[in-house]
Amino acid sequence: RLNGINWDQGFAFHPDERDIYMRSGCMYDLLTDAPGAQECGYVRGEPEAEPGLPSIGTFLDKDRSPLNPHWFPLGSILIYSMVFFRSVAELFTDLNSLDMRYFGRPLSALADVGSVAMVFILGRKFYGTGVGLLAAGLTALSVIHIQNSHFFRPETFSVLFTLASFWAMWRMLERKRLRDSAMLGLFLGLAIAPKMSILPILAPMFLVYCYWFLDEVDGRWSDITSELVQRILGHSVLAGVVASGVFFISAPYAFLDVGAFVGDLADQTRMARSAGLWPFTIQYVDTPAFIYQIQQSSIWGLGLPLGIVAWLSIPFTIAVAAFSRTNLRADLFLLAWVVPGFVFLETFEVHFLRYVFPLMPIMIIMGSRMLLSMVTACRPSQVHLENRIIDPARFLPAFAIGVVVLVAAATGFYALAFQKVYVEDHPAVTASEWINDNVPRGTAIVSDNHWDEFVPNLYSYNVWQFPVYDVDTLDKMNTLARKLASSEYVVFYSSRPYTSVARDPGRFPFSNRYYQGLFNGSLGYELDREFTNYPELLGVSFRDDAIRRAGLLRPVALNPIENPAVTLDLGYADDNAVGYDHPRVLLFKNSAHLTEDLISIRLKTSPQTQDSRRIGLLLSDDDLKAQ
Questions:
Q1: Which residues contact 393 (CB under 8 A, 6 or more apart)?
Q2: Taking the complete model, does pTM exceed 0.85, yes or no?
Q3: Closest C-alpha to 119, from 361, 411, 372
């Protein structure tokens, strides 16, 4: 998790992580009254903000307080923690905002190590030491955990404290003391602080309180008294008050600037519920509910076969809970988190892989239990032992153990292969270095990265960004034709533009034709080279392919990259799984130098009609005769 902590060479390619660092930097400058602080980032839009440490009156004034981040999609505690560490580090050295990655990412990594420990504790508590050890090992090797540890975002912190909340719920159920309810409130508040998205945690909480009632009345609901209700209600209120207090301390302006807080949450909810509302969510238009997240998390989040085991553990646990009462309470408790949580997430049309990340540790616990249950069930009976020469059942224990070994080994192999992403240079940085070394300064370049990340250090070139997400119009195509005719290269940071546009052809008919013409060569451009950094180990490469999903012709590079001994083409990977730390950067070269008029005609002509014509004159034989 700490390997390659500077994997992006300081360019901060994840927009949310970058925003946290930049906002914390502006807040630090404002608090220290640094020169130019009131012209920094978001502070420019807050003219009433007063520099320096605030008095109580200033602190309570949302407009004047320098501690108001004026931004609530993610938890304010993330910004405050970076301000704190910056203030300590500045005693010894000078830092800029993006240098804070050396503090933020280790914190994220350590939080996820804490999640591994909590997985062991919960697995041991619910199903025994063996399950706890196996689940912790698989969690430690899960790529989705390793990858999230390399970003300073809320997920690793929220997952850690969510798991701690589950432990606190069970401790409260076992001991039923006020201090245990207060501890539950503490962990709940810490789980909510980084991100307000753990609403489904109410389901397992409700179940725990139901268990408490049943314990008090020996399973007879009719024996519940008002005194018992008041006592348990008092514990729940205490937990709620403590959680609210922790949340207030971590994000005071969620209360003091409640209008902005509610507005930001509403915007995030609208974004998640309606694919295509914002440009970076167009990629999720018409993606199938449930299936998309299961597929993406299985292949790219956990890796095969662990992903299959994790998702199969849900029906397995449901079946065990229905037909066996051995661990019924634990089974229902874990299912109360995973099933409602997944159903709740699938009410959203947007399917970021990070949405299902909080479910993964619990699914790994259930999957580990399933694997070890299979080993136990396959142990030969005395009859099998006496007849092992002729009974084929004697192979079942070895087969069951082999499955466990295969899952662990495959997960470990994928985890080690993924380390290459953080050991070698980021593809966008490699592309930038190649362009600066081989392309003359001042060369015209079309950059196709609208609402995407960027190839850095192209300031000495004449770069024009194609605004793909603007409304498709003839004027937009005319401008594109002019730029393509006068430019020498087209560069893509990632696959997001062409895969997104392909999801909504009715909205982007001309842009779809542009990408089809670019990739099939009819616009005069050829793929010069690509810059990649796929997970790879011992000659085995795990590759994703977004071009096929976009329905584009796969171009052959003029300078192809060297292929490893074994290439595993695993299909389309969600842009949020590959687009920040190892995107596929493509560089097209203008080899034909077509005229602006010809490019314009081809951008506005249906590709199907264009493909049916002969190479050469534009008029068909019938049109020529008619004219």
A1: 380, 384
A2: yes
A3: 361
